[in-house]
Amino acid sequence: MPHHERRPDPRPHHDRDGHNGPPPPHHHSHRSRNAILICLAVLLTFAFIFWLTDPVGFRERMEAAAKIEQEYAKNRPVPTPIMTDPGTTPPPIGATPSAVPEKTEKPAATKAPEKEPAETGALEVYIIDVGQADSIFLRSPKGKTMLIDSGEAQNYDDVCAFLKEQGVTKLDVVVATHPHNDHIGSMYKIINTYEIGKFYMPAVTHTTATYEKMLDALADKNITPRIAYAKPNAKIAWGDGSVTARIVSPFEGVEYEMNDWSIVLHVSFKDTSILLTADAETYAESVMLANLTAADLDADVLKLGHHGSSTSSTEAFLDAVSPEIAVISVGKGNDYDHPHEETLKRLKKRDVQVYRTDKNGTISLILDGEEITVSTKRKK
Fold first, then answer.
1. Cα dihedral sign, 34-35-37-38
2. For 292-323, how does the pLDDT look when each residue is reduced to its tens digit (9 = 90+)?
3. Which uninterrupted H or E stretch holds 183?
4. In this structure, are residues 171 and 191 in contact, taking their beta carbons and an 8 Å threshold?
5. DSSP letter for each residue of 111-177
6. SS3 of 101, please?
7. How far, in Å, CA of 184 to CA of 270, rounded?
8. 5: which residues sit within 8 A by CB, 6+ positions away?
9. CB–CB of 154/189 below 8 Å?
10. Whole-model pTM?
11. What is the C-alpha to C-alpha distance for residues 244 and 249, in angstroms, rounded to an integer?
């Protein structure tokens, strides 16, 4: 049988819509898929190269972002239900009104208000016997408490024993006058032991371990210290309006040595007052005299600067303060010969009555607004 080859169909191709033309291509979808895969591969390659070139920075940024999100979630405010009647209980989500009781069967437990300290009608000031160091405790007529300095590290037990004897469980104000160890030596322990309302310190730093421990303790208790500067009407808000505690030193913008950075407080109750000078020396005194009036510094009692050193309590300063009583926080037989003879002579010349912790022990001053009563108590 003869072989016949199939001839090509001369008829034109028609698509489903009746249009002439070649058959529609079927390989476009494969090209698109390949292009997408190539793009993804390029992006992943760039990301991998970025991670290799900066792995630590990349991780740190991711961890920082995660922490921010966690903090936001933790601190996100929770809406408080609105209660028109304090005796009703808000309905649970999805509950019908009939399923909710109109009144709670038992009132919710409430925290008993803190008992206010008894009013004494006087400002109490105690110069605690801590040897060659400083620690002063004040209590307002309404029972508000203030601790100024804490002595050396070894004085912690003495200070705590005194506060316990006074029934103190909370310190409304704490003042670290300056960063020397004989003033803040046990301050970190005080911060860790007591509930503290406000904490004041000067704008000066130190490199000692004691100072660092104090800052660490403040951070651990989430206490933000307040920087003390002498400005017009600069006062410590103590919570008792009958007492005024003015900051009269240091002044902002003045270059002080460490002792002269001391926070100096003028505390008054009615017609009685006391000036607490920490370790302020001649230069700080001269700055106060140049910026304040004698009326600003005038006080019935002066706690002498720098343990009665001759570098404090100048003639001009004593004239401005014009105290009737002077108290000196000083250690018995100390290596500095404090108080200095020159200082004691200046006080004697003005007929100022002197009390010293090395001879008298802890000194108690009761300022009732008109008169001042002094008593002393030596260690057993």
1. positive
2. 999 999 999 999 999 999 999 999 999 999 99
3. helix 181-184
4. no
5. PPPPPPPPP-SSEEEEE---SSS--EEEE-TT--EEEE----GGGHHHHHHHHHHTT--EEEEEE--
6. coil
7. 31
8. none
9. no
10. 0.70
11. 15
CB 287 within 8 A of CB 310: no
Q: Say if residue 250 is preceded by a cis peptide, omega within 30 of 0.
A: yes
- Residue 328 near residue 308, CB atoms below 8 Å: yes
**To 10 degrees, what angle do helices 28-53 and 55-75 make?**
90
Closest CA to 198 of 171, 231, 178: 171
CA–CA separation, 183 vs 197, rounded Å?
20
Distance CA 303, CA 328 (A): 6
118: amino acid identity, one letter: A
* Residues composing the chain: 380
Q: How do residues 170-213 score in pLDDT, each as one tens digit?
A: 999 999 999 999 999 999 999 999 999 999 999 999 999 999 99
DSSP states of 240-286: -TTEEEEEEEPPTT----TGGG--EEEEEETTEEEEE-TT--HHHHH
Closest C-alpha to 230, from 266, 179, 204: 266
Q: How many helices (H) and strands (E) does the chain have?
A: 11, 14
Correct CATH for 123-377 of 1.10.3720.10, 3.30.1330.60, 3.60.15.10, 3.40.50.620 = 3.60.15.10
Tell me how crowded residue 336 is: count the other CB atoms within 10 A of its CB: 13
